[in-house]
Amino acid sequence: GAGVSQTPSNKVTEKGKYVELRCDPISGHTALYWYRQSLGQGPEFLIYFQGTGAADDSGLPNDRFFAVRPEGSVSTLKIQRTERGDSAVYLCASKKQGDTEAFFGQGTRLTVV
Amino acid sequence: AQSVSQHNHHVILSEAASLELGCNYSYGGTVNLFWYVQYPGQHLQLLLKYFSGDPLVKGIKGFEAEFIKSKFSFNLRKPSVQWSDTAEYFCAVGNSGYALNFGKGTSLLVTP
Fold this sequence. Notes:
Number of strands of chain A: 11
Largest sheet of chain A: 7 strands, mixed
Largest sheet of chain B: 6 strands, mixed
Number of helices of chain A: 0
Distance between the termini of chain A: 36 Å
Number of strands of chain B: 12
Shape of chain B: globular
Number of helices of chain B: 0
Structural class of chain A: mainly beta
Mean pLDDT of chain A: 95
Low-confidence stretches of chain B: none
Oligomer: heterodimer
């Protein structure tokens, strides 16, 4: 049983570029969450999927951020026109229906230069 | 809106010392409370959780936490820490979908 897998583990991009971050949840987990963790802070909720649909996207900071989960498994977090302030570790977590514990991936460290 | 406050940002203890990390939350409804740990270079892992019932919750590795509703607190405790407990500890409040609202974290260093 593999855990939550996130790729890439590190991403360096130039300001203004577009990036995609991928999350492979644990097989069979219907709930998927994205968080962002800035230096010295706790993880900050971005978006929550139940199946294919975004059940709660209230944490997305602005319209440059978008996430999809077209088949209810893999999810992609997309950031347009990246800014230096987007630099952070982006965490993904997944949870089985009816369970209370979410399992986290190692995260993608995004650096915008 | 939910918020979580962790009082201690950096804690240094000697092995065998007792640990208590403070966590206060603000939320008017039913709360689901969690403590997560992140060991150096590893992903976040659940230490323990509280949903209902006995307010004293026992987790993995000898950790426990007590939910005190009147104080809006969920402090983490361990009677005797080990060097291997060196890690970042996060308190979190969950909503109905279990999207978590985390505190800023407490960095614990245990010295031999």
